[in-house]
Amino acid sequence: MSMHTLNELAIFRARLLRDHHHLDRGTMEDTVSQLDATIISRPATTPDEGIAKLELARDMAATDGHTDLVKLIEGALMVLRH
After folding, report:
1. For the CA atoms of 66, 31, 49, 8, what is the dihedral angle to 10 degrees?
2. How far apart are CA 24 and CA 75, in angstroms?
3. How far apart are the first and last CA of the chain?
4. Dist CA 77 CA 27 (whole Å)
5. How far apart are CA 8 and CA 16, in angstroms?
6. CB of 77 closer than 8 Å to CB of 51
7. pLDDT grade for 3, boundaries at 50, 70 and 90
8. Which of 3, 47, 52, 76 has a beta carbon 3.0–4.6 Å from 10's, enabling a disulfide?
9. DSSP H helices in 19-66
């Protein structure tokens, strides 16, 4: 996975989550965890990569039920996208 950009990894992650019926749950969760770790560990070097990292943070916060953090990240994303 090291040769891919953060955006490519984020797109692959989104497609994997969308089309998860092709994999068993354990394999999908392991793959998503590996992608998350890779995305988190790389520094963002462009605004698009920063947005991809914030989107991952938002998804992780939502999974953990941190609604205030989700709202905070959504506000930052709205500013960055415009």
Report:
1. -140
2. 35
3. 30
4. 30
5. 12
6. yes
7. low
8. 52
9. 25-41, 47-63
Gap between the Cα atoms of 29 and 35, Å rounded: 10
Cα–Cα dist 56/23, whole Å: 21
Q: Is 1 helix (H, G, I), strand (E, B) or coil?
A: coil
Q: How many residues does the chain have?
A: 82
Structure tokens at 72: 């905070």
pLDDT tens figures, 15-68: 888 887 777 888 888 888 998 898 889 999 998 899 999 999 999 999 999 999
Q: How far apart are CA 82 and CA 77, in angstroms?
A: 9
Q: Token pair of 59, please?
A: 């998804």
